[in-house]
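STRUCTURE:
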């Protein structure tokens, strides 16, 4: 938002933003949560209704795109996924918002549909570039070459993911598909680590854990089962090339604080990286500020190319900058990129959900019953 110099109204329905320079990232930067105003005034298809028992929404008949068919939405929190699934199977609720990969086949039946969609989030192990162990780009490339992403996706994500090799969203229109991703090459990874002077000792020499040519600690949030399983799979693969990745598991509040303060060697995260380049710019191309550029990645050419993308409105210039930036980030990777992930929603087949590749929550105002009735409530 630093490029915005002023905001002024123009008529009843228009705002004009004055900028100090062109800002191609501004539209995505404006995608910010807004507080509900006085008298429960919002802009969506549903509005919140005060209830002592929980969150309840009612449809807004004057929604600009048309009144929703669903009259009422009741949100019922659950302590765990097992409780949510039981409620869904018993017909007590109509949707569970997050189905983990291993449960998709279990939860889907003649009465329940599971709708999966790709997210612009990816699992990655971010390196603290200020840590001596990660200062070498050759070491970071070797770690990326040591991991079989397809095997990880099959084993842990049950096939619900796409291999990642950088922070740029591969479905962006300017993404260069000809850029060669990291190839699984454990032999090459070992050779690169050897050339970097990281030799495998015969014994552990008094240090904890097995003999290792490289040892580092990865931060994990407590009670995040999927991240733990991903971490264990990567740990085993790195061990095969003589790298010992140890874990430090902390409560989520401490996890967040330590990332923002840079108090870690490496950290396993589920990070937003799209759909445009504004998000990766914040983490990998912007100067350190407000804890967002907490990984300390510093590559002058990457910063320059991110700035080109931030200010350019020429399609050819954008495509050229993206292609070059992809190659810079492959040569000097700021993280061990693992997989772009998917999310799944479980919905009772009582509802007809519009077909699209988007999150069905975004289309809930368009849902209809699979009957002639027009009055629908959902929970």
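SEQUENCE:
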């Amino acid at each position: 938002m630093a490029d915005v110099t002023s905001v002024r109204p123009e008529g009843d329905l228009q705002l004009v933003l004055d900028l100090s320079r062109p800002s191609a990232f501004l539209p995505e930067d404006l995608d910010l949560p807004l507080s509900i105003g006085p008298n429960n005034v919002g802009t969506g298809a549903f509005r919140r209704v005060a209830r002592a028992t929980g969150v309840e929404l009612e449809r807004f008949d004057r929604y600009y795109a048309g009144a929703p068919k669903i009259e009422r939405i009741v949100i019922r929190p659950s302590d765990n996924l097992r409780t949510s699934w039981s409620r869904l199977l018993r017909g007590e609720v109509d949707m569970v918002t997050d189905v983990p990969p291993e449960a998709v086949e279990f939860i889907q039946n003649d009465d329940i549909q599971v709708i999966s969609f790709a997210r612009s989030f990816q699992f990655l192990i971010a390196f603290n570039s200020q840590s001596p162990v990660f200062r070498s780009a050759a070491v970071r490339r070797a770690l990326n070459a040591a991991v079989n992403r397809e095997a990880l996706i099959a084993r842990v994500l049950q096939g619900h993911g796409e291999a990642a090799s950088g922070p740029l969203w591969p479905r962006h229109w300017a993404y260069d598909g000809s850029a060669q991703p990291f190839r699984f090459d454990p032999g090459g990874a070992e050779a690169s680590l050897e050339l970097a002077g990281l030799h495998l000792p015969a014994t552990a020499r008094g240090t904890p854990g097995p003999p290792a040519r490289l040892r580092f600690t990865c931060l994990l949030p407590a009670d995040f089962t999927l991240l733990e399983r991903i971490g264990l799979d990567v740990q085993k693969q790195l061990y095969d090339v003589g790298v010992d990745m140890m874990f430090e598991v902390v409560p989520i509040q401490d996890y967040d604080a330590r990332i923002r303060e840079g108090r870690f060697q490496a950290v396993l995260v589920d990070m937003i990286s799209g759909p445009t380049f504004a998000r990766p710019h914040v983490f990998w191309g912007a100067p350190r500020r407000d804890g967002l550029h907490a990984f300390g990645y510093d590559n002058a050419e990457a910063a320059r190319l991110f700035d080109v993308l931030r200010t350019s409105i020429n399609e050819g210039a954008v495509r050229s900058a993206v292609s070059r930036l992809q190659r810079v980030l492959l040569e000097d990777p700021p993280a061990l990129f693992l997989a772009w992930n998917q999310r799944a929603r479980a919905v009772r087949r009582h509802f007809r959900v519009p077909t699209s590749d988007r999150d069905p929550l975004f289309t809930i105002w368009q849902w209809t019953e699979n009957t002639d009735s027009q009055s629908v409530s959902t929970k």
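REMARK: The CA atoms of residues 156 and 229 lie 7 Å apart.
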